[in-house]
Design goal:
- The complex is a heterodimer of chains A (317) and B (322).
- Chain A is mainly α and 317 residues long.
- Helices cover 76% and strands 1% of the residues of chain A.
- Chain A has a two-stranded antiparallel sheet with strand order 1-2.
- Chain A starts with a helix and ends in a 6-residue tail after the last helix.
- Chain B is an all-alpha fold.
- Chain B has a single domain, classed as ABC transporter involved in vitamin B12 uptake, BtuC (Orthogonal Bundle), CATH 1.10.3470.
- Chain B has a two-stranded antiparallel ribbon.
- Classes of the chains: A mainly alpha (317), B mainly alpha (322).
- Chains A and B meet through helix 5, helix 11 and helix 13 of A and helix 4, helix 5, helix 9, helix 11 and helix 13 of B.
Chain lengths: 317, 322
């Protein structure tokens, strides 16, 4: 790969980061002008508190999309883990130290299973993860149809805890994103995710353990869904099988807005982070100026189309 | 029909492989029906079978359209949202007499065609992945629909809509007749016409199709329009069946229609499939859903079984064709 192409790719990605960053500033200014409560510490703190769930599922989606796949089981998985956590903690509120690792382990295992199925059956990830989503959702509903369970106070606190005035969840999110970015850029395994996404056959021919990397990406997505579920359960205090339903598709939006190409191999976590900020801030602003959630849907759809439209080029035959 | 100086695409339901695939699915359906008959003596009664098929008809209409889109390497996630939007549109006329029905149909088809045009344009001309384009369309339609109804739709419908959906002519449900008509018409287009051949060519190799004088963009856009129109019609019939408008008419049909098509051997990689086999996939799906109830399993079991069969079917056809 010549230095020039690398440079162009970098620039292209930088350009999309720049666009999103400018949009963020514009949104902040617009928010400040439209409402004098928008740019208060209180609201910014609230905003950062909301970031973690969307942020984590989008990060998971980023790994999978970079590797050239897609994970549509995220929402069902988040729902299933919240149900597990809330019911487990209702049964034994004293075992938080056991429940959290178990939840993360289960989520990672389900993610890895997604990856294994795509590798072993060689079926399109869209089909595998849609199918898995249906299976996970059905299994969760068979266990608990309605939201239920409860969590001990100490556990609920992690959703609202602050360290030096900054929400704990925001710190966790930034640290995880930074680690993920470093891992993707600086380590062999991390970089191989890009290789597999860019050209799977070439990666295989270069001796990369492609199958293992695919499974790893899905496992990481599962792990991220698990972390999202922990904070979601802490915030809501119940386990709800349906709570993740909208998350699957929402997780895709920050990824594509941040410039990660759905075909795989290009993009990064910084873009996703900016995308998460943008989406969260936009929703918050629209709520502030009382735009109904109905129009928010329309705007979300338009953003997807515009964001993707910017990054795509005309197909030539 | 002008002869094309290209070899016939193999996947027109005539090669041994696809014949075998079709019979494989029929055997599966037969086994399912025997199990269902053993589980409950009422299953094989004509009344019950007609009932099952009546429920399946709107899904069948969507699958006819979904097949076109999948054949050109796409997929349409906006079909269910479009069905509900068409249902809401049907009430916008606030019509209480049957004279409004043709108007409702024309408006619904026009809206659907426009939606398909946008989907197709995004996919073909702007090179947006079908997943994202139709996903965005799904959310946009949902937003517009909810904004219009304010979350609480009214249910003023001409009485004839109910007849369209659950009425009968000589004992045959009207919606089954419509489905048969749609399937045969589009089946002829797909499997016996020049356009159909172009669709298969674009699906199996867009570049080769282009070099052979086919305009892939136009073919792809047309497939999305056909898909949306089929979904729109399906929405009207489902609305008539349900009888009341909700913002979620047809929810889940996007997944079900893809499951049915894949089970019917329509390859997600494009260029391979058959409308009638896809409809057989619908029959299998509906019988499985019915069977879960007949066997007394909780209804959530349907979700699990559906998930298993979509992964299993995709794996089955992949190995079969490899």
């Amino acid at each position: 790969m010549s230095a020039i192409t690398v440079d162009l790719r970098r620039n292209r990605l930088l350009l999309s980061y720049l666009i999103v960053a400018v949009l963020l500033v514009l949104l902040a200014v617009a928010g400040g002008l439209l409402s004098d409560r928008f740019l208060t510490w209180r609201n910014i703190g609230n905003l950062f508190q909301q970031l973690i769930v969307l942020g984590m599922v989008s990060l998971g989606q980023t790994f999978v999309v970079l590797m050239g796949g897609i994970d549509l089981a995220i929402g069902s998985l988040v729902g299933a883990i919240t149900v597990f956590l809330a019911n487990f903690l209702e049964w034994r509120p004293d075992l938080v130290w056991l429940a959290l690792p178990l939840a993360l382990l289960a989520a990672t295992a389900v993610g890895a299973l997604n990856g294994l199925l795509t590798v072993v059956l060689r079926v399109h990830p869209l089909i595998v993860t849609l199918g898995m989503s249906s299976i996970i959702f059905g299994a969760t509903l068979m266990y608990r149809k309605e939201p239920g369970g409860s969590v001990p106070r100490a556990f609920a606190d992690i959703a609202y805890a602050k360290v030096g005035g900054i929400p704990l969840s925001a710190i966790v999110l930034v640290v995880i994103f930074a680690l993920a970015g470093l891992w993707l850029q600086r380590t062999r395994t991390g970089r191989s995710i890009y290789f597999v996404g860019g050209d799977r056959e070439a990666a295989r021919l270069n001796g990369l353990p492609v199958d293992r990397i695919v499974v790893l990406a899905y496992a990481l997505s599962g792990l991220c869904a698990g972390i999202a579920a922990i904070f979601l359960t802490a915030r809501t205090g119940v386990g709800d099988p349906r709570i993740g339903a909208a998350l699957t598709l929402q997780s895709v939006m920050p990824v594509v807005v941040g410039g990660t190409i759905l075909a795989g191999g290009r993009g990064g976590v910084l873009g996703t982070f900016l995308g998460v900020l943008l989406v969260t801030m936009l929703n918050s602003l629209l709520n502030f100026v009382n735009v109904s959630s109905y129009y928010q849907w329309v705007i979300q759809g338009l953003i997807i189309i515009i964001a993707v439209g910017i990054h795509t080029t005309r197909r030539r035959y | 029909m002008a002869p094309l100086d290209t070899p016939m695409p193999r996947s027109q339901g005539m090669s041994m492989a696809s014949v075998f695939e079709r019979y494989g699915l029929m055997i599966f359906l037969a086994v399912l029906m025997i199990v269902a008959a053993l589980a409950s003596p009422t299953f094989l009664r004509p009344a019950n079978l007609v009932n099952v098929l009546t429920i399946a008809a709107p899904l069948g209409m969507v699958v006819v359209g979904q097949t076109f889109v999948i054949l050109v390497r796409g997929l349409d996630l906006s079909v269910a949202s479009l069905m509900a939007t068409v249902a809401v549109l049907a009430t916008a006329f606030k019509a209480t007499t049957n004279e409004a029905i043709p108007m409702i149909f024309i408006a619904a088809i026009a809206l659907s065609a426009a939606v398909g045009l946008v989907n197709g344009w995004l996919v073909a001309k702007r090179n947006v992945s079908p997943f994202l384009a139709t996903l965005a369309m799904m959310i946009i339609l949902q937003g517009i629909r909810f904004a219009y109804t304010g979350g609480a739709p009214i249910s003023t419908l001409p009485p004839g809509m109910g007849f369209l959906a659950s009425g009968r002519i000589f004992g045959v449900p009207v919606n089954l007749i419509t489905l048969a008509f749609l399937a045969i018409a589009f089946g002829i287009v797909l499997h016996r016409s020049r356009l159909g051949r172009e669709i298969f060519m674009v699906g199996s190799n867009p570049k080769a199709a282009f070099l052979n004088g086919v305009a892939p963009d136009r073919v792809v856009i047309l497939c999305y329009v056909i898909c949306s129109v089929c979904a729109g019609i399906g929405g009207l019939f489902l609305l008539g069946y349900v009888g009341t408008v909700s913002n979620w008419v047809g929810q889940g049909y996007e997944l079900d229609s893809i499951v049915a098509a894949v089970m019917g051997g329509v390859a997600l990689t494009g260029g391979r499939g058959n409308i009638f086999a896809a409809l057989l996939g619908v029959a299998v799906l509906v019988v499985i859903n019915n069977l879960v109830l007949l066997l007394g399993f909780p209804i959530e079991m349907q979700l699990i079984i559906k998930g298993v069969i979509i992964i299993g079917a995709a794996a089955f056809y992949r190995t079969r064709l490899a």
